[in-house]
Amino acid sequence: MKRTFLSLILLVSVFAVHAKTLVVYYSYTNNVHNIVTELTKQIDADVVRIELAEKGLDYAANNYAIGSALISAIRNSPNDAASYPAIDPVNVNLADYDCIIIGAPLWWSNMAAPLQTYLLHNGAAMAGKKIGLIVSSASSGISGVEGDAKRLIPEGDFFNPSLWIRSSQTSGATSMISQWLNTIRYDEVAKVENVPADQNIGKFTIFSVSGAMVAKDALSMKDLEKGVYIVNGKKICIN
Ligand SMILES: Cc1cc2nc3c(=O)[nH]c(=O)nc-3n(C[C@H](O)[C@H](O)[C@H](O)COP(=O)(O)O)c2cc1C
Predict the structure, then answer these.
(1) Distance in angstroms (rounded) separating the CA atoms of residues 234 and 182
(2) Which of 106, 163, 171 gets mutated to test ligand 1 (max ligand atoms within 8 A of its CB)?
(3) Domains and CATH numbers, the chain
(4) Cα(67)–Cα(57) distance, integer angstroms
(5) Which atom of ligand 1 lies nearest, measured to the CA of 32?
(6) Cα three-residue angle 87-91-92, rounded to 5 degrees
(7) In 3D, which of 66, 82, 74 has the Cα closest to residue 28?
(8) Does 149 have pLDDT greater than 60?
(9) Residue 126 in contact with residue 48, Cβ under 8 Å?
(10) Model pLDDT for residues 188-220, shown as the tens digit of each residue
(11) pTM of this prediction?
C-alpha cells in the first residue's frame, strides 16, 4: 500500500512536464484563422500566421487567377525555390517544439502557396516531430494537400487522420476539433515528458519510440541512453 502510494506520487512528478506545440497556418478569408482560434482554446500552443510578402492581392479576382498562377508555378517546378511566393520572415525556433499543427487552406487541390513556401524552407527542421494537418476547403477532398505536406516534411511523424473542415463547417468546428484531438490521441501522443535519468518511475516496461521493448519492470531509467522512450503509454525524454 505504502509502495503504491509512493509510486503514485513519483508518477505525478514524472508526468508533470508537457511537450510544446506550434500551430503554423495561412489564411486568406479567415476560415483557417477561425479554426486555429478554436483549436487554441482546446490545446496549449504557440501560433504563427504566415503572410505573403506582397500585400493587397485579391485572390478572388478573375476566378482566383492569382492563386491559380501561384499553385501552377509550384506544380511545374516543385523542387525550385524560385517557384514559391515570397513570405514575410517568420521568427520561430522549431527546435523548441515537439509537435507542429499545420492549418492549411486548399487551393486548386493543393496546399495554399504561401504555406508551401514556409514548409519548403522549414520542413527539414520538422524531422521526427509529430505533425498534425488541418485542411479547410469549400468542397474538394484534401489528399493533394496531404501529399504536399508529406513532400515538404518528408521525415515528419504525421498524426493520422488529418482533419478536413469544409468552409461551411467553420463556425461549428468546435466538436470536429475535439473529436479529432481524441482520435489522434493528441494528449497522450504529443506529450514528451522530461525526466532525470535516476528518477524513480514506479515499475514499468519501457519501449523505444519504434515499439521495441528496452527494459522490463524497470524502476528507473538510469541505465538507458539519453533519448525518447514510451513508458506506460507516455513519451518520456531522458535528459
Ligand atoms: C486561390 C484559391 C483556390 C481555391 N481552390 C479551391 C478548390 O479547388 N476547391 C475547394 O473546395 N475550395 C477551393 N478554395 C476555397 C478555399 O479552400 C476555402 O474557402 C478555404 O476555407 C479558405 O480558407 P481561408 O479562409 O483560411 O483562406 C480556393 C480558394 C482560393 C483563394
Answers:
(1) 15
(2) 106
(3) 21-189 (3.40.50.360), 191-238 (no CATH)
(4) 9
(5) 26
(6) 115
(7) 66
(8) yes
(9) no
(10) 766 666 677 677 777 778 877 667 788 887 777
(11) 0.80
